[in-house]
Amino acid sequence: MLGKKDITIYDIARVLGLSPATVSRGLKDHPAINIKTRKRIMDTAREMGYRSNSFASNLRMQKTNTIGIIVHELKSQFISSVLAGIEKVTTEAGYDLIIGHSSETWRKEASNAHNLFHKRVDGLIASLAFDTRDMDHYDPFVQKNIPIVFFDRVEDFAYGTRVVIDNNKAGYEATAHLAAQGCRRIAHITANLARNVYADRLKGYQQALADFGLSYDAELVIVNDLSEAAAIRAARQIIAMPQPQRPDGVFATNDFFAAVFLQTLKEGDVRVPEDIAIVGFNNDAIARIIQPKLTTINYPGEEMGEQAARSLLEQLAGLSAARTTDTIIIRSELIIRDSSLHRKV
């Protein structure tokens, strides 16, 4: 069965005996139209079920008032907080959001970028998937001078603004804290080192070891997908190590992973922090719930989202060039809780 035909301004004009131009201005609350006439137009439009086709109107102005977003996952508290920050700023500016989810794959990220381009988004905010190397799927945006802001997971790309934290510094602070607590064999559990966030945290980890006179052991760097199953495997791997080789400190680059890892250690009769001190990353809610509470790096996702959105809106308003390659660095900080208070005298 066919749906009912949409009501147009021409239908309203016929009912009221007015010109379509007058109805159009009245619906926009134009002061040139008598206030009583405006009220008649509004009331009739409401009674007839008229819906404004702002999309078509915006297309005529080469604008859709929509912003595309590509994220690598949706279950993350960090990503949720970034989206909240973006939504807060863009809603105030009158923009709608279309969100694409890459599920950590380059192929799906490229498909999302293609779809958003053809939906004529005015701008794009994106965080890259684990395996994204080829940035060709962003070329149509470059060619049309559509602004892009990359956040968190970024790549060297001669277009677009980047919004990040200093991951090198954060990795250094997490590792230095464990070393200052007396840890001498510090493991680092991380993800795909081809991604900037994990590569930079590893550099900070390595520099802190060197500054505290601790040797770097590649066997203590565990790279996985940061899933719950991977956390359990990593904990069991460490529990199985003979005592001289077992780490006495662990810097894990994700709070959910760190919490599962911590719980698995406890189930294996490994004490935290007495036997192994742990530092996570992100300051997710789980860090305050797990026992002992988790020391972590505070990663202000909402602020990152707000900054990314503001940067994009400035470019859309012509206040800065769409081809800018600026990097905006958001402040992070170490939050010390019981999971790392391991000090050996």
TrEMBL record:
PROSITE patterns the record matches: HTH_LACI_2 (PS50932)
UniProt xrefs under InterPro entries: HTH_LacI, LacI/GalR-like_sensor, Lambda_DNA-bd_dom_sf, Peripla_BP_I
CDD domains, per database record: HTH_LacI, PBP1_LacI_sugar_binding-like
Gene3D superfamilies reported for this sequence: 3.40.50.2300, lambda repressor-like DNA-binding domains
Single GO term (MF): transcription cis-regulatory region binding
Keywords of the record: DNA-binding, Transcription, Transcription regulation
Protein name: LacI family transcriptional regulator
Species of the source: Puia dinghuensis
